[in-house]
């Protein structure tokens, strides 16, 4: 799951909120737009997101409960 934010501060501020909601992700990774675009270019790929300058990449188990909770978070932390 990719959550998009307009700043790294907004991305970091959302992590405790996500964890307090009961979601226990396998991984949460912060990635800056410049870093991910440079990585994509190196690999001969293009980063598909056009909005935001900061991203949280979140891995969950795929359990239906986790998916439902993340649908809520997409509404709580909309892409900017």
UniProtKB/TrEMBL annotation:
Q: Which GO terms describe its molecular function?
A: catalytic activity; flavin adenine dinucleotide binding
Q: Which SUPFAM superfamilies does its entry note?
A: FAD-linked oxidases, C-terminal domain
The reply on keyword Flavoprotein is yes
Report the InterPro entries cross-referenced here.
FAD-bd_oxidored_4_C, FAD-linked_Oxase-like_C
Q: Does the keyword Flavoprotein apply?
A: yes
User: What keywords does the record list, in alphabetical order?
Assistant: FAD, Flavoprotein
Ranges for domain FAD-binding oxidoreductase/transferase type 4 C-terminal come to 3-66
Transmembrane regions: none
Protein name according to UniProt: FAD-binding oxidoreductase/transferase type 4 C-terminal domain-containing protein
Originating organism: marine sediment metagenome
